[in-house]
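Sequence only, no structure available. Ideas?
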Amino acid sequence: MLPNTGKLAGCTVFITGASRGIGKAIALKAAKDGANIVIAAKTAQAHPKLPGTIYTAAEEIKAAGGKALPCIVDVRDEEQISSAVEKAVEKFGGIDILVNNASAISLTNTLETPTKKVDLMMNVNTRGTYLTSKACIPYLKKSKVAHILNLSPPLNLNPLWFKQHCAYTIAKYGMSMCVLGMAEEFKGEIAVNALWPKTAIHTAAMDMLGGSGVESQCRKVDIMADAAYCIFKKPKSFTGNFIIDENILKEEGIKNFDVYAITPGHPLLPDFFLDEQPAMVTKKADSYGAVPELKEEKTQPPPKARSGAVEETFRIVKDSLSDDIVKATQAVYQFELSGEDGGTWFLDLKSKGGNVGYGEPSDQADVVMSMSTDDFVKMFSGKLKPTMAFMSGKLKIKGNMALAIKLEKLMNQMNSKL
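Reply:
I predicted one. Tokens follow.
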């Protein structure tokens, strides 16, 4: 863990979405130096599924050694942003650092994303970041520290990151484009940078996306707080950078990253927008805006000897079924498999005793999963984690995500037999 230096003592840090997760972790790190924290978030009353409000966060910030100003702010509302900025300046005399952390996510494809969700992501992520920055900039210009930090990814034009969740990618990249533009516009006056995690970070949002058990593949929010703290210590001339948490901490001399892991030694889930796996690496675009060429990403058809592997997998699955499994699951799964031995298959865990087979199920499927036959076999034999397959684009899921997560648990039970 990165030690505090006291550098942010007396600084005023305005953080959107600071009532929980990464935003709150950054707030607590700065509070240990004795910073003033403006908690600009919309959770004034406790949410049944998500812990923390602006008031509980304020208590934690005070306990850590900082001063806190909780403000009810929905970043879609310009008046609420302006009001919070005015209160911050009135109470603390200015604003030194802005962290644009508030974000909305829906990992759905174009036809599956309701307009309401599209508007939410565009308005919170891109527009909210732009308007909050605009409101804080006149005060940041007067500060000796003067940092804007957007929690957004490097701009990666690999189509892989657009095809599964186009609206979400556009909305997050809008935050990154604010970095690109504002860093140049306010060069010499305000440092404007982006920070993004190398691996999945364990937050309430991650639990909702990945389901129970996903935390073992994640790092703690502390790694992002430490990385943000490194950035705030840098001069105004450090601007226009797209920083990965692990990289900046390595530069600070951090060698042991196990301290940040929820389960030290467990394989970690790579985060979105980073081409880490060889199959996803793109050739560098020669110029801005050029569409990068993808290296061969298509799954090679399995060798002839593996013909019937899907059928064999389903046979073993059928032998593993029981009334208890059916009772605990209560879902119908449909698999759209491409490649040899592919086609449509189903796993019925609603009817008595359960059933599997080729073709469409007799009842409407609760979850439809699309992938290659090769990846399907790997997934059921435990060689490919469904969460990893989904995040890397190898697996498409339509329907009830909670029931899809139930299947992952079931697969874990079956792995020993497959």
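Residues 277-307 have pLDDT under 50 and may be disordered.
Hope that gets you unstuck.
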